User: Fold these one by one.
Assistant:
Number 1:
Amino acid sequence: MGIGGMLACTNAMVAELANARARNLAVAVMAAGYPVGAIVGGSIASILLVSGGWRDVFQFGAIITGVFLPLACFLLPESIGFLLQKRPANALKKVNALLTRMGHDEVDALAAPDVAAPKASLAALFAPGLARITLLLTAAYFAHIMTFYFILKCVPKIVVDMAMRHRRPAACWCGPMSGDWRALCC
């Protein structure tokens, strides 16, 4: 639940905070970050398991989290949408700083809040006309994330199990990834 929620939130944050020119690249780099992190984390874990034990893996994770959480709190800005909705002190200054950072022109004043705008709610997603698309999108996202988890979690185990029966385990793993499916028959 935590990683799945983080992936969805990170995707939205990156898309919102990146400027139009770099948005597609930023979202692609963000999407690649989870598997790259799994590779790097797995490599570090294997080193820690050999030199210490399973507790070292959790201690390392706690230390890394302790280092990066404050960095994220200080370096990650509030979104423009949040600033426009909540209107904290110096909201105009903060919005202009974000607009400049994203390559946009500054604004002279914030637009007046629309008091007639309907408030967002979970029930609104299931209102007539939206219920069907809400359920379809939820099912599609669930299928997507399950496929994503399957690929990241199960395929390496399957390949390792297959490689144990073959004379060339590296070919079993690298062959299909490079388009040579004959490697599975070695």
Note: The first helix runs from residue 2 to 17.
Number 2:
Amino acid sequence: MSEDTWAGVRERVLRLAGHPQADKVFGARGHGFRLGPVMDEERLRSLEADLGVGLPAQYRGFLLRVGAGGAGPHYGLMTPVPSDDGWQWRGVGLAYRGQPTTAGFAGRPFVAEALQGELDALDAQEPERDAFTDDDAFRSAHAAWDARYEELYDAQEAGAVFLAEQGCGYTSLLVMTGPHRGTVWEDLRPADRGIEPTGHDFTRWYRRWLERTERQLGITPAAPAR
């Protein structure tokens, strides 16, 4: 991947904050067009050691050259930060802080598509009261069904990072493992649509947001310095 991918992007994003109509952009009140500091190689290697795999190259380049988190699509990007329990992605500096993701969870296999099939099958097997002779038996069966459903539901997010809060319960995820590694997916389960691919890798997803925002505000990006 060319190093030019992220050339000038940090400056372009920060420039948006000074526009008089900046707060009219969707999500701007969540991140204020602020970016966190970039990360250095030492911190990235520490994060990758905790993750158990290397970061997707495009996202790694972003962390090195643009920022660790902050301004971005929807209500802004989560930031990887170290803690006593290891690295986690958290909503540092965001008004609407999304669900944190641990590096250990993000480093697991991403099998959301396969688990959706299991969830669909389980959904059709939800216990019904009429099939039981007493309330206690029904409640016990339904509790076991519900526990298994929640287990599979939560496991769908494994292998990905909760990247951005979209609002209304929808989120953007960055896949860290497997054949879809480096691509952005959307968690649309509140609308009963599952976890679906956007069709974009991280670079395309982020740059589309930046270019769309510049067009909305009537800003012509300056050519990157060489």
Note: Strands lie at 79-81, 88-90, 101-102, 160-167, 170-175, 183-187, 195-201.
Number 3:
Amino acid sequence: MALTIHRADLLLPGAGRAPVPDGAVLVAGDSIEAVGGYEELAAARPAARVRAWPGVLTPGLRNPYGPELLEQAYHPDPREAGELGTEPLTGDALAALEMTDARWGASARRGVRRMLAHGTVAVAGSLRRATVADAVARSGLGVEERRARPPGRPGLDPLAGQPVEAAFVLPPLGFEGRRADFAVFGVEVPPGGDLYAALARAGAVRCVATVLDGRLVHRRA
């Protein structure tokens, strides 16, 4: 089984657990084998491949607006940018489009890629369009239940409009056997600074890398 150590300047396990300077996550296949200081993990698994990332490694993020972003918005193809722009289309702009099942599926695939680029590893809310649900399932993105539509305007940044801790998927990093879903954000935190505030200010747009089910699915160029 392939072993990979993902190392970052700072590891934030989530659920109120203390940050780990020069922290790392040891991934075995699609699962987390261990979490801790890099030197300790590297000594325990000297044959593991090492990926070093700048910034803060956190649990992956949950976007609460799954249906709104994937079934009620159209993500234009780059070839349509001249006509439709690059941002998701909703409302009258969406109503003006001729949407087929195939077009919804293609839009969802592009939307998922944009979510992955924001550190998202799961969405909340039921997906009812078959082609959209299939695109999400094929990507490996998790789908979680939600009781009601959350307030606020749907957006791709899960760190906007809610506490940072609330955006993290559960359980926190550190549970052996937990699915290897996490993200790294290019955020610098000064000594004694508030890590959560720094993440909130920077936003998920600063995502450097996203790991989903043990796979590196996004890496910022």
Note: The CA atoms of residues 160 and 203 lie 7 Å apart.
